[in-house]
Amino acid sequence: MNMPRSFIAAVLLIAAGGLPLPAATVTVDVARPGAPINPAMWGIFFEDINFGADGGLYAELIKNRGFEFPEPLMGWATLSPSKAKGKISVRDDAPFNANNPHYARLQSEGTAPFGLSNEGFRGIGVRQGESYVFSARVRSVAGTPKLTVRLYGGDGTVLDTVELKDFTNSWERYTATFQPKDTDPKCWIAVLLEGKGAVDLDFVSLFPGKTWKNRAGGLRSDMVQALADLHPGFLRFPGGCIVEGSVLARRYQWKNTLGAVEDRKLLINRWNYEFLHRPAPDYFQSFGLGFFEYFQLCEDIGAQPLPILNCGMACQFNSGELCPLDQLEPYIQDALDLIEFANGPATSTWGAKRAAMGHPEPFNMKLLGVGNEQWGQEYIDRYTRFAQVIKDKHPEIALVSAAGPDSGDARFKFAWEKLRGLHADIIDEHSYALPDWFLDNAHRYDGYDRNGPKVFMGEYAAQSVAVLSTKNRNNLSCALAEAAFLTGLERNSDVVRMASYAPLFAHVDAWQWTPNLLWTDNLRTLRTPNYHVQALFAQNRGDRILPVVLSQLSAAEEKRVYASSVFDATTGEVILKLVNATPQSAATTVDLAGVQHLSRGTMTVLQADNLDAVNTFDAPDRVAPRETAFSPAAPKFDLTLPANSFTVLRMGISK
Ligand code: AHR
């Protein structure tokens, strides 16, 4: 076929970003504000995947601190310099704590220092100028040897040394503080017995002095800060499939995560063995980050707690083991007890446990998830039992129910039909799909039933290659597709009440799943373009939806401009979000209908030259929001959206 030259030239110009397409008009009906926006609309999905808790948010730096891994010396190695003679054994007689009974016995003939090293979670990260609290439970067995503990840098340089001595023949806790002389993300420690004799050693721990809110045994502050900066409306925890377990015996049981950390029984992490292509044999749950700490974190960062409980079903991608319906009572009781733990008076059984952990006031929980990503009649049967009891005793709690792993398949449709019939409160939808799915689904909720259950878009993430591909990247293309999709959630926030990206964290040297909202190494947290998108929505939430009409778009152009708008009554500003997910700029005319005058304003743009752009630890702000002043002369103005961009305008108005 012969094509006219002018046509070919135009196509080439467009491909090169050279030929401007006709302007799209974005009309915001400021005079007719719509439904209120849920203050908890934009939130966080947390799961202990990718070393998210142990080796991540939970700031403990020693791996296998209690020698409880099935291979009890995993993470540890015997340190036996040439002249040293000694023996390491792992025992469980007369333990320090019966819930975590194993400990190490170090015996030395005193010829030279002899002992153990610990590699941390893919190394131990320390900063010069900060202090690190070392502690261990020690019991003397023979002689009066002392323990020398050394912090080594990755290159073998000694960064600091401390000593523990004067042990007795009963278990006691000894502490010392390291002041590293250098910053190093890949340190390790040596625990060396000096002198002839033997000691028992357990619960070997190293914590940064600077944790979030400087709590002893607390959370990594850089990681929590990234969460706080999201302005999250809610925090869903502890997952994810981890709630379900591959078999019921390995499900997440919140009651086992309370009290002193030494009492919390170690459990294998399902992500240890879930993906054979990304095995993590050293991945376990210490529960140092347990339910009390999750609630406390919610309070710290102003997020509503949304715990998800096992509903008597193990992961349906694994065993799919079911608790028989006539044996479900303990699972439902766990839910009732959790409500009492979170909200009951300090005099109640479970409220007293909360108070004993230092929080007499209730945590004010309003949301509770029944099951994670379950599907089928088996789920409906179990959800129904939970809902009957909880709604009867606690009508104040809104229940989140599951609709399977895919927000469009037969399992999903079945769940919606059944849950609609049961008048479910909120249905949790999950979408892991290619960027095009997110662009195509920006109008997904326009036609949803306004009188049915509400929606929680509880797990979404655009996949640059394919679901479960290890090549998936957190690139700008995915972030912009998500931004386009989120405009649809925002425009429909009378139906879509909450949304969160998933998963949240991944350690660069220990991940199982990609993409993720935030990447970490042993010292730093990297904010992805996807993070910035969710943060911009949360930081510019507003209180009322404003109707938006997009016009003058041809079918081909429809994918070029996505928009949503809200009104912020506190600041008196119209907030307009505009996405151009293509490599060409897009001319628009914005019309704020019903507005007489505009005052001060800002324009924040997230953009890069290339849709493949990603942030890295070397270039962490390659794709980051840039804010400038913005003052159009009149309520109707022209605006060119840069190629590959997400723009947020805030404009003070008077009507
Ligand atoms: O976010 C990772 C996993 O994806 C979650 O554990 C699960 O709910 C979903 O399948």
Question: What is the secondary structure topology, with strand pairs?
Answer:
Blueprint lengths: L4 H11 L8 E6 L14 E2 L30 E4 L6 E6 L11 E6 L5 E5 L5 E3 L5 E12 L2 E7 L5 E7 L7 E7 L5 E11 L2 E12 L12 H8 L5 E4 L29 E2 L15 E2 L5 H11 L2 E6 L19 H15 L5 H8 L10 E4 L5 H18 L4 E5 L7 H12 L4 E8 L1 H6 L13 E9 L13 H16 L4 E6 L3 E3 L10 E3 L4 E3 L1 H11 L4 E3 L1 E4 L10 E7 L4 E8 L5 E8 L3 E11 L18 E4 L6 E6 L3 E10 L1
Parallel strand pairs: 1-30, 2-14, 14-17, 17-18, 18-19, 19-20, 20-21, 21-22, 23-24
Antiparallel strand pairs: 1-27, 3-6, 4-5, 5-13, 6-12, 7-12, 8-11, 8-13, 9-10, 9-12, 15-16, 24-25, 26-28, 28-29, 29-34, 30-33, 31-32, 31-34
Helix pairs in contact: 4-5, 9-10
Describe the structure.
By secondary structure, the chain is an alpha/beta fold. It has three domains: 5-36 and 543-654, Golgi alpha-mannosidase II (Immunoglobulin-like, Sandwich), CATH 2.60.40.1180; 44-59 and 212-538, TIM Barrel, CATH 3.20.20.80; 76-208, Jelly Rolls, CATH 2.60.120.260. It is 18% helix and 31% strand. An eight-stranded parallel sheet has the order 2-14-17-18-19-20-21-22. Helix 9 runs parallel beside helix 10. The chain is globular. The model is unreliable at 1-18 (pLDDT under 50). Bound molecules: alpha-L-arabinofuranose (AHR). Alpha-L-arabinofuranose binds next to loops.
